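Homework-ish question, so no full write-ups if that breaks the rules, but can someone show me the predicted structure for this set?
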Amino acid sequence: MSDKGNPDALTPYARSLGIELSGMEDGVPVMSVAFDEAVEGRPEHYHGGATGGLLETAGYAALRAELAKRDREALLKPINITVQYLSAGKSRTSYAKGRVTKLGRRSANLTVEAWQDDPSRPIATAVMNVLVAEPKD
Amino acid sequence: MTDKPAFDPKTATPFLTSRGHSGWLGLRYSDHGDDWVELELPWREDLLGEDGQRVLASGPILSLMDMASGLAIWKAMDRFEPIATLDLRVDYVRPAREGSPVFGRSQCYRVTRSAAFVRGLAHDGDASDPVAHIQAVFMKIGQSTDKRELPGE
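A: Not a homework solution, just the prediction itself:
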């Protein structure tokens, strides 16, 4: 199934974790997740995996938006992700926004930042490489 | 006095995964050695990634490896001490098989005064044919508000 025409579609995983589209900034989706038990690691803090899931979801959302802008259909498959945890995610809503650093014919390179109160003080960042494959008929 | 290890991943895992993000994922103890721990992530329809591909999302694998790495570090240190992930890299070498649980095995190969280093893999039944490889660094937090007590402590 292609993502064309529905760049805001969330994966079942993202929906299940409680990730939502918070809004658009300059044509790029900003994703958010409210703090609840599904994202909690040590008490009152985000689990590193949940923060990673939010970053990854925001990365894919930014890539889908860019593909839609270029009217390209593609199947997206993960190649890798590197997450840097900068400070502890506290018990409030987290946001994340991705940037397509490079969109090639076969792969894309993305950078993503997650924050809580202040977008200029990220709590985590990620670099992702994603395989951009031709959709199967 | 006893020679019994202070940190036993088998008894600690059900405690640590009873709630929170790990509980939501349903992580379970699978196996461990002196410096490694393997956890199981059961198959779940609502953890799928891209629509139409029937492939587990990569997020849960990240969480699985983060948790297995933490346990491997506590096993290597032989005590429960607050730690935080500093850097985690995951290479997804192939999709996990549909319907199969994913196992995350992480090894702590070095602990310093302030940091712990791990490497590991995720597989769906055959550890010689991994679905992902990981490398991560954790920091010891030191003084913390984490008041959890573990069985055996």
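Now go work out the reasoning yourself. Hint: Confidence is low (pLDDT under 50) at residues 1-5 of chain A.
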